[in-house]
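Working notes for the structural subgroup meeting. M.R. asked for a predicted model of this chain before we commit to crystallization trials. I am recording the input and output together here so anyone reviewing the notebook later can reproduce the run.

Input as submitted:
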Amino acid sequence: MKIMICGSMTFASKIMALKQKLEELGHTVSVPIDAETHSSDPGLIDDLDRDFEHCVKNDVMLKCMKTLASNDAILVANYPKNGVNGYIGTSTLMELGLAHYLDKKIFLLYPTPSYKEARWAHEVRVFQPTVLNGDITGVGFQKARQAGAALS
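Returned structure, recorded in token form:
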């Protein structure tokens, strides 16, 4: 399967590790164009001016959306962040919306948080993602169909 991994760039190193694992499982994997940059320069995420310049110069959102369009599925690396389990940021929410619109298979690495933790959890659940509960071997059309839209 051709799959794109999305998530907060604070998770860039974890996204790169997920990419390697999925490739070992036989998938063709894309990551946001800035994942490698943020992985090698973790301070970039905290320097908002420099990060903004990087995003504008590289047209990060448009390139991510075009990359997503060329894949079969999206995997959201929604690790805990800012005290929220299953964190999904605004850019990733946009990518999820596009994936849903383009009828891509949607995987979440972990369940969405409660509505009290994050109001956006409702919108994400409407997309009926397959929740992997941390087990990326669940990425695959056959297994995803068996798992259905298991949400917690």
